[in-house]
Design brief:
With 215 residues, the chain is an alpha+beta fold. It has two domains: 11-63, no CATH class; 72-214, Jelly Rolls (Sandwich). The chain is 18% helix and 33% strand. It is built from three helices and nine strands; from the N terminus they run αααβββββββββ. The strands form two sheets. A five-stranded antiparallel β-sheet has the order 5-4-7-2-9, with no helix packed on it. Strands 1-8-3-6 form a four-stranded antiparallel β-sheet, with no helix packed on it. The relative contact order is 0.19.
Length: 215
């Protein structure tokens, strides 16, 4: 039977070993685990050694939220984008007389689904000087690009029709009162640059009719 030659640690050495292991563990957690897993960097080692780049924010996945646009995603809107180009003449119907009676007042609530990365229009029709109050908002406050515009009613419309823009904006909500400058179709072009579909809820009250395509 052979005697064992393994060293035996006394209490002081054992305590010292435990303290060293504990300190190493704390340093590893603070310097590596926190920056990589929780985006917390109390020692600055995450930035120094690149551990912070390993962090992935999965909060949106867990809560079911969609990625939203920030103000840095928007191009500046300039007046050159308003309405038809100068090459398209204003139709003679633009100057038609004001009707003696307006359309019957009504109220509607409409939901428009704007697919991710795409655009869609929603319009109603009015007579000249017809008055309409409106508001709209998006689900989850997602921001969309809008062109609120109108097209003149023409007996024989050309291939490229004349239109006027009333407002261009990036927004998640808008409200106002609209008085139609001419008889025709008026409404919104919604453009969705988000990664998921956006539902726009639209309320209308006033002298208008819904187009058959949207009923």
């Amino acid at each position: 039977m052979n005697d064992s030659n393994q060293p035996i640690l006394n209490n002081r050495q054992l305590l010292k070993s435990v303290l060293i292991a504990l300190i190493i563990g704390v340093v590893v957690v603070l310097g590596g685990v926190l920056p990589a897993e929780y985006n917390k960097d109390p020692l600055g080692t995450g930035k120094l050694f690149g551990f912070s780049r390993l962090y992935i924010d999965d909060t949106a996945e867990k809560t079911g939220e969609t990625q939203k646009l920030s103000t840095t995603d928007f191009e500046i809107i300039k007046l050159q984008k308003l309405g038809s180009p100068l090459s398209i003449p204003k139709p003679i119907e633009f100057d038609n007389a004001i009707p003696t009676a307006q359309l019957t007042s009504r109220a509607d609530t409409i939901q428009v689904v704007v697919p991710a990365g795409k655009g869609i229009e929603y319009k109603f029709k009015t007579l000249k000087l017809g008055s309409v109050k409106y508001d709209w908002y998006t689900t989850d406050n997602n921001i969309v690009y809008i062109d609120f515009h109108g097209e003149v009613y023409e007996e024989n419309p050309p291939e490229e029709v004349f239109y006027e823009s009333y407002a261009l904006a990036y927004s998640n909500n808008m409200a106002g009162t609209f008085t139609a400058p001419f008889k025709g179709k008026h409404g919104w072009y919604f453009r969705n640059k988000n990664i998921a579909d956006v539902t726009v809820t639209l309320h209308l009250v006033g002298q208008y009719e819904l187009l058959e395509a949207y009923k």
